[in-house]
UniProtKB/TrEMBL annotation:
Belongs to the sigma-70 factor family. ECF subfamily. Signal peptide: none annotated. GO terms for biological process: DNA-templated transcription initiation. This is RNA polymerase, sigma subunit, ECF family. Keywords: Sigma factor, Transcription, Transcription regulation. The keyword Transmembrane helix does not apply. It holds the Pfam family Sigma70_ECF. It comes from the Bacteria. It comes from Fodinibius roseus. Residues 5-185 form the RNA polymerase sigma-70 ECF-like HTH domain.
Amino acid sequence: MDKKHDITQLLRNASSGDEEAFDALYPRVYNRLRDIAKLQLQKERDNHTLQKTALVHEVYLKLIDQTQTNWQDRAHFYAIAARAMRQILVDYARKRKAQKRGGDRDRIPFREDMIDLDNHAEELLELNDLIDKLARFDERKSKVVEMRFFSGMTIREIAELLDVSTRTVDRDWLKARGWIYRELSK
C-alpha cells in the first residue's frame, strides 16, 4: 500500500475511534505538517515566539480532536490542516493585537511570502475577515487563498486537493488576490 492510501486508511480508522490509528498516523503526517509550518514561519522574523514544532503540535492536536470528522482522504486532512493553521495564526495575531492595543498601523502588501504576526496582527485579522467574506460568494477561491497563504501549498497540490486543473487554481488565485487587493485599498 502506498503512503497516500496508507494515510487515507489510517484517517478513516481514526475517525471511527481507533486509538492505534491515531498513534500510527502522527509519524506519517508529521513531516508534511512540519513543512507547512516551516513555510509559514519562514515569513516571520528569526526570533518569533511561535515555533515550528509548537505550531505543528497545535495543528495536530486540533485535527485529532475532530472526532466527528469523517476524513475522506489525505487531501481532505491537509485541507483541514490549512484551516487549522489559519485559525491558530489568527488566534495568535488576536493575542498580539490585544497586547499592543492602539497605535497607527501601516498597510502591508498581500503577499503569500510575507507575514509578520508580531508587527502586523491587525492586517492578518483583516485578511482573515476578507477570506471569510470571499467564502460567502466563492468558496473555492477562499479555499485557494487559505491553502496558498496559510499553509504554503503549491498550485499543483491545491489543484489535486480541490480536484480541478492547475489552470483553474491559477485563475482562482489571481482573481482572489485581485479582489483582496481591492478590498484592502478601500
